[in-house]
Specification:
Blueprint (H helix, E strand, L loop, with lengths): L6 H9 L4 E5 L3 H10 L3 E4 L3 H4 L11 H14 L4 E5 L9 H13 L5 E3 L7 H8 L5 E6 L5 H4 L9 H17 L3 E5 L3 H10 L4 E4 L7 E4 L1 H4 L17 H18 L11
Parallel strand pairs: 1-2, 1-8, 2-3, 3-4, 4-5, 5-6, 6-7, 7-8
Helix pairs in contact: 2-4, 5-6, 6-8, 8-9
Amino acid sequence: MKKRKTIHDIARMKDSAEKITVLTAYDYPFAQLMDQAGIDIILVGDSVGSVFSGYDNTLPVTMDEMIYHTRPVVRASAQALVVADMPFMSYQIDQSDARRNAGRLIKEAGAQAVKLEGGVNIAATIAAITAIDIPVMAHVGLTPQSIHRMGGFKVQGRQEAQAQQILADAKAVEEAGAFAVVLEGVPASLAAQISAALGIPTIGIGAGPDCDGQVLVIHDILGLCDKYSPKFVKRFADARQTISDGINAYIGEVKGGTFPADEHSFK
């Protein structure tokens, strides 16, 4: 039986130049499929708000929702490291609040680590959480919880001053004790520079091929989300059409009286 990966295993993957694979999951069936396939990290992302609950962005997601979605992912997985997002306003108020909410995701939901958005401005909070032995994955660059400040989902770091700030953010979260950092929506050259400068793994999403790993939303790679289609997403399957075909076939057979047949009925 395979052992569940730890943050130390993830660190060794960077040291050995083995790419780290990350996907989001919010329920038991998808998490089980990912785990059996050998995914390294399952992220229970606050992206659940957009792709699962139909919100326009991640901001409405609550702690209770994150705990609810993390629990089945943990139950379904045996070898992947499970990281749970801390939703908007669960860690920005004060460090005591942040520690308490991070602890809930570990104690009540069963996650092995949490993820926070922000760089220099949130480094002290990351340090406070890691000080109570809760592993933290950081997230810099395009941070979806900051869309109102950023003016939407826009690539960050194209201007030199902004690029230097993102580099400073990445270094700050490493110094604060983060075991890895997500780089989202930044130029590939900047992501490569940051990945070379840090001792911790970088996980890219819309950040080019030179990060230590990659993360995407499961609904995006399976073609299940039609609300948006970012440039960095590749569809690896068309599950939407397969599911639609199955639903249409079911409706047709029920309407036509061919389902249930004898083999689906009790004597």
